Amino acid sequence: MRELAFGNIDGVTLGVFVVLFAIFAFLGFWASRWRRGDLSKIDEWGLGGRRLGWLLVWFLMGADLFTAYTFIAVPSSMLAVGSLYFFAVPYVAWGFGVALLTMPRLWTVSRNKGYVTASDFVKDRFDSRWLAIAVALTGIVAELPYIALQIVGMQAVLAAMLAGLTGVVSKTVSDIALIIAFAILASFTFTSGLRGAAITGVFKDILIWITVLAVIIIVPLSYGGFASAFHNAAIQSATVNQALNHAKGPINYGALSPKLIPAYFSLSLGSALALYLYPHAINGSLSSEDKGKLKLGTSLLPIYGIGLALLALFGILVYAVPNALSAVIKLGAGTFVVPSLIAYTMPDWFVGLAYLAIFIGGLVPAAIMAIGVANLLVRNVIKEFKSLEPKTEATLAKVISTVFKFVALGFVFAVPATYAIQLQLLGGILITQTLPSVFLGLYTRNLNGKATLVGWAAGILSALALVIEANAKFGVIKTSLYTTPLGPLYIAILALLINLAVTLIGSGIAYGMGWRPSQKIKEEEITKEM
């Protein structure tokens, strides 16, 4: 508990928040009636019947990008660290390029062969159940802290609202609110599946765009623009550095140090390669009605990249609003950058709208992620050892999806937010090690399954070793960069290079010893709709 006055937050703010949340919940339950299908089948429940048009694909995948954590973490990192964290902008742009090269091919073979997950494809492509299980388990492990971090962002919004309404930050009250919200989310996800996530994603993204555009236009016009923000940053960034990082010296927002260029580039590249390996991104892509609509929806996603660039600038814009910056410094937490900026610059009703947008910006991705995890666990782990009827398969996926949401919620309650954030970076490092089996498997069948599995293991083990060594002096996971003669590099890239080397050399040896590729998937099944 701490005393705090927090901006233009009052009963009107709370009323708008509650009313909009009620609309959100209604849409989630109503979605089960939209384009009705047999929700006792896993592809109807978990992929929306593969009937989403290009606009819904755009909104759904955008819902995965503009999350509560993105809204909180990107500006927070910009404020606390400086220009290095602008790497989020090129990473998203490159990530959509990766998506256009891979997702249409994966969609085609999945439609032709009836696949629901990437691991379904891997199993047949490499004729290896163990490689498919490894890919599935990697996705499940990587997704848990990703969902947990949506909750961290939601907690920041609840804490800010409570501070404005009561003058204190009560963890107990915010935890109860989170549990209620997740119970509602779990209920309509169980009922509506991906349809619920898609419809609520449209509602959530409309509110998010209203928030981003309103703040990025109104605040600069009202508070002296970015000229004032950068001027104040030059004077006050040392104070911010001390408050947030307990370090001395100013923070550089205007330029990137030459020694950090390798880190910037490798973080962008590694994150771009990881983005569409996550189960929720693949799950959303496979829900498209046809390959053309998937391409169109994906090609328009850079519009969200523009929004992300504007959002990153919030971390600098906060310097133009002295009261907002003072609140962040007083709390000693960068997670309050956006909540405080909005609370001190916008009218009370708009604060309620914006806070609700950020809050459900955590719930919608959590639903998509839990569905993706449930599909993997049921189809590619449990089903490998026990035969399941289609109805049982779907029911089990619904139950696991529900349980996984609350496991993630418990994860946040048990693990400090700082550790959760670093574990998410580790999740990105781990999911990248599935690239040879998923992405390269879409373009070549000449990789040996056993060699690819050994390569995956080498990538995972080397990644863990590099993370441990890089953080040895900290005692906790504090960095995802490893110092090399070229400069600090994202560990995901280093581990992936080891993974690829083992996979390619092993496949060459296997071919020389008489192994020949599996014929379970014909090339036309990957390139042509049939």
From TrEMBL:
The record describes its membrane topology as: Multi-pass membrane protein
Kindly list the GO CC terms recorded for this protein. plasma membrane
Record flagged with keyword Chaperone: no
Task: Please state the protein's primary subcellular location.
Answer: membrane
Q: Which GO terms describe its molecular function?
A: transmembrane transporter activity
Per UniProt, the keywords (alphabetical) are: Membrane, Transmembrane, Transmembrane helix, Transport
**Where is the protein localized?**
Membrane
Q: Which residues form a coiled coil?
A: none
What sections of the protein cross the membrane?
12-31, 52-72, 84-107, 128-146, 152-169, 176-194, 206-226, 261-281, 301-321, 328-347, 353-378, 399-419, 425-444, 451-468, 488-512
Query: Transmembrane helix: present as a keyword of the record?
Result: yes
Q: Which family does it belong to?
A: Belongs to the sodium:solute symporter (SSF) (TC 2.A.21) family.
Question: Under what name is this protein listed?
Answer: Na+/solute symporter
Species, as recorded: Metallosphaera sedula (strain ATCC 51363 / DSM 5348 / JCM 9185 / NBRC 15509 / TH2)
